[in-house]
Every structure is written in structure tokens, then in C-alpha cells.
Amino acid sequence: DAYTVFINTIPSRYYPLFMLAFQFLTILSMREFGPMLRAERRAKYAHALTAEDANLDEIEVDEQLSPSPGTPHRWWNGVVPIVTTLIVVLLGLTLTGYYATKSAGDDISASNIFGNGDSYGAILWGAFVGSIVAWLMARLQYVQHGKLFNQWKFWLKCRRVPSTEGEAPARPLLTLGESLKYWIEGVKGLTTPVLVLILAWAIGAAVRDSGADIFFSSAL
């Protein structure tokens, strides 16, 4: 199965192994190399954050996803949705793989469970739950006077956060409309790799259905 093939080919995956070793070398030597070194020098001496030949479309997307001025930055608003996504993905892989392995009558082992798991469904559910958690966290946390606080006790009493006359009322970190807007902006950056995957799957299906894979394997 694909999972066993992937595990057995890890020792031959030289590029990711060398990149991991290179990251440890960068940390231990406390210096950058190549493009990162040029970017570091450009920021230090030329006070420029981007290169002259940088892709402006990517820079504009990053700026559009930046938080509004005056929004308090809290690490858990980024970490909790990501951790939730990972947990749901692993849980989905484990459950679907367990029941598929059990129904097939195979041995209940880690390799069989993850090999028979529904990776597509697990990733889909993980992304969905992670998005919902991120929206709920942004909706339940309110900003007033540049400070962040939870709205839960006011929600339970069906009351709004009190504010004095002439004072801007408290607002959530993200409204529903803003959440949808930023979610769509984030999805834009994934459009190209998703299209590449769809086209690769289409080519693979066409080659398999036409029998070209058998022809190429025999010719080579």
C-alpha cells in the first residue's frame, strides 16, 4: 500500500533529510545562507523588506491578511486552530483506518491503521473543524480600549459589553463577514497547488484507464 511504500522510501529521500540537517546547521552556526543571507543583509543595511524582483501579488496577499491596527496579538489565536486541525486529522486517520483494517480482517497495527485510513476525509474534516475553532475564538474575544477580553459572561446574560457615552463600543476580533473575507483570501494562496494536484490526478487517471502505464513500464 502507499503508506508502506512511503515509510520504506524515507531513507532514500535525500532532499528532505539534507534540508533537516541544513536547518540544524543554521541553528547551531547562528547564521543564514543563500537567499536568506541576502534578505538579512538587505533588511539590515538597505532597510528593505522585499527584493526588487519580488512577487508583488504574494506581498499584497500577506498585507491583506495582516491584523487591523490596534488589534492585540495573542499566540493562542494562531496555535489553537492549528493544533485542533492536527488532532482532528490524526483522530480521523486513526478511526477510519481502524475500522477499515478491522473490516478487512487484517492485523490491528499502526502501519495497517494509517495505511488504510481515509487521509482525504481526515484532512477535510481537520480543515473544517480548525476553521470553525478559529472563527469561534475570534468571535468570542472582544477588543475595547486596545485590550482583549472574553465576552462569554455577557453572552450568557444576553447583554452587550457596557460602554460610556461617546466611546466606541467593544467589537469582536473578527465579525462573520471579516472571517469569511480573510478565509477566502487565505484560500487564494492555495489555488495554484490545488490546481496542480487536480491536474496530476486527472493525468494519472487518464494514463491508468488507457493502459499507458503498462506500456511505459514494459518499454522501460
Automatic annotation (TrEMBL):
It is a multi-pass membrane protein. One of its GO terms (cellular component) is plasma membrane. The chain crosses the membrane at residues 14-34, 75-100, 120-138. It comes from the Eukaryota. It is found in: Cell membrane. Residues 3-137 form the Na+/H+ antiporter NhaC-like C-terminal domain. Keywords: Cell membrane, Membrane, Transmembrane, Transmembrane helix. Its main location: membrane. InterPro entries: Na/H_Antiport_NhaC-like_C (IPR018461). The keyword Cell membrane applies. Pfam families: Na_H_antiporter. This is Na+/H+ antiporter NhaC-like C-terminal domain-containing protein. It comes from Erythrolobus australicus.
